[in-house]
Specification:
alpha+beta, three-stranded antiparallel beta sheet, seven-stranded antiparallel beta sheet, 338 residues
């Protein structure tokens, strides 16, 4: 076995054992999740007795590194074969970009890359990461009605940790582009939050000609993306984080729709109709036509919305002041993570 190769030593009774350069042999415990990218499995070291070596790890295994045989072409036809190959190439690129970004970053509030290898036999890229037992999406769902957990102190602590991680990423020219509760991993015992899942992340420079694709999850997308703007910056992540913080203190999505028109209609209810004062040049954005059918609205105001729906009280107005600066419709006026 070459140094760059990960070996599947055993696949009996649904047990997989992997060998990494730095961490030796790891045994699969269970599958944590599956998606278009592949799957994430929980693993631990084999045959250890001390507490340090018994800790658990997460392995992200890519589906993308596949070759398609003549059997695929005979079964599905050349067109389907070409589509599968193009999809594989796209997955390959995304996974390699994620690996490249993770190799560059190390921060206490960002998930840590431990090792990586390529399974040449099965054409799978395996990324070994530290494991946190839950994410804020699951933790929030399980504890949203518990006032001993969901309170101002929890919100402040989580806010600080997420923004610390974001500030580090942004200072290293990385936009995450998919900040949401499910992508903030959380260790409830140590009260540590870490930004995870860099599959949609991009490294950027300050060349304004750079074109980015439409990405992200609808309830957390900023208005400029929903309207089709392809030039955007780190303010994307700030908007998404603001949505998370409002979600924690109100108990529900701020913009809980799964399409652009639905999300913008909710923005209208809170912020009022878009105009050149709050979003300069919005009528020239590529998707501006989608809002022509929306009725005019004065909006109830972001602070008013939070006060009406909040699940706990605040000692002062600091949170309201901060969230208004994060959830500013004009991306050029949003506060930075720093």
């Amino acid at each position: 076995m070459s140094k760059e190769e990960i070996e599947v030593l055993d696949v009996k009774d649904n047990i997989s054992i992997y060998s990494f350069r730095k961490f030796g042999k790891l045994q699969k415990v269970e599958t944590l999740g599956e998606g278009s990218f592949g799957k994430v499995v929980l693993a631990k070291k084999i045959g250890v007795t001390n507490q340090e070596d018994s800790k658990e790890f997460a392995i992200k295994i890519s589906k993308g590194f596949k070759k398609f045989s003549k059997k695929t072409e005979q079964k599905n036809g050349p067109e389907d074969k070409n589509k599968e190959e193009e999809k594989a190439k796209e997955l390959n690129f995304v996974e390699l970009r994620e690996l490249y970004i993770m190799k560059k970053i190390k921060h206490q509030n960002v998930i840590n890359l431990l090792d990586f290898n390529l399974n040449r036999k099965d054409k799978e890229l395996c990324i070994l990461m530290e494991y946190l037992q839950t994410d804020l999406g699951k933790f929030f769902h399980e504890n949203s009605q518990n006032p001993n957990i969901m309170n101002e102190n929890f919100l402040k602590n989580i806010s600080f940790q997420i923004l610390s991680g974001l500030n580090y990423l942004h200072e290293n020219n990385i936009i995450h582009r998919d900040i949401k509760l499910e992508n903030i991993l959380y260790d409830s015992k140590k009260n540590i939050a870490k930004i995870g899942d860099f599959g949609l992340s991009r490294q950027f420079d300050y060349d304004l000609s750079t074109i980015y694709t439409d990405v992200g999850t609808y309830p957390y997308k900023p208005p400029e993306l929903l309207l089709g703007l392809t030039h955007y910056s780190t303010s994307f992540d700030i908007w998404s984080t603001g949505c998370i913080l409002v979600e924690i203190c109100t108990g529900s999505h701020l913009f809980g729709k799964d399409n652009a028109l639905g999300v913008i209609s909710l923005m209208y209810e809170i912020f009022g109709s878009f105009n050149d004062d709050i979003l300069p040049g919005f009528k020239n954005f590529p998707n501006s036509k989608i809002i022509q059918s929306l009725p005019a609205s004065r909006g109830k105001g972001l602070v008013n919305y939070i006060k009406e729906n909040k699940k706990f009280d605040f000692a002062n107005d600091d949170f309201y002041n901060l969230i208004e600066k994060m959830l500013c419709i004009d991306p050029t006026k949003r506060i930075s993570a720093k």
